[in-house]
Amino acid sequence: MAEAGRTARKPRWRHGRPFWGGLFVLLGGAEIMATVWAPLGVVLHVGMQNFIGYLIPIVIILCGLLLWFNPAQRLFYSLVAMVCALASFITSNMGGFIIGLLLTLTGGALAFAWTDEERNTGEPVAEEQPVTDPTIGDLSIVTGAKEQTEE
Q1: 4: exposed, middle or buried (Cβ count in 10 Å: 0-12, 13-18, 19+)
Q2: Element (DSSP H or E) covering residue 70
Q3: Residue 43 CA: distances (Å) to CA of 7, 62, 85, 96
Q4: pLDDT in tens, 10-24
Q5: Integer-rounded Cα radius of gyration of the chain
Q6: Is-contact 83 40, C-beta < 8 A?
Q7: pTM
Q8: Which pLDDT score, from 0 to 100, does residue 121 have?
């Protein structure tokens, strides 16, 4: 019985936040962090490898988690993640050998574009009714009252 309640809550939780954007940002940050910890034969020493090389992927991972747990600030977190991903190209082995950079940029773009509005249900949209008000389109408001013509 408790299992059914959990499975019913998962889609609601996932759809109430930028889930896929946060997941891609997390994966990108983890991949960049893994390349920082790579053996010395694989590491490219480009840029500042010490403090900043570890700080950038940590900030990216935190942005991915915050996208999940604080979706109201998704614009800020996605922009910070994308800027850090671009900075990781210089500081963290070419952005995790380009793979982490691309994952983070994709996740940041997904999170930036995510909205919590209701999706279209597929129902046809009612056509707009023609306007029957005769004052629309004339300049009677500006020029004064319309003159009456007798026929």
Answers
A1: exposed
A2: none
A3: 42, 24, 18, 10
A4: 677 677 788 999 999
A5: 26
A6: no
A7: 0.67
A8: 60
Q: What angle do CA 88, 106, 95 make, to 5 degrees?
A: 20
Place of tokens 């570890």: 54
**Amino acid identity for residue 54 in this structure:** Y
How far is the C-alpha of 11 from the C-alpha of 99, rounded, in Å? 28
Residues whose CB falls within 8 Å of the CB of residue 33, separated by 6 or more in sequence, listed in order:
54, 57, 58, 61, 92, 96
DSSP-based three-state secondary structure for 30:
helix
Tell me, what amino acid is at 79? L
CB 104 within 8 A of CB 85: yes
How far CA 112 is from CA of 11, 16, 17, 72, 86, in Å, comes to 20, 14, 11, 11, 16
Phi, psi of 21 (to 5 degrees): -65, -45
93 contacts 115 by C-beta, under 8 angstroms = no
The DSSP code for 143 is H
Considering the chain, what is the average pLDDT of its residues? 78
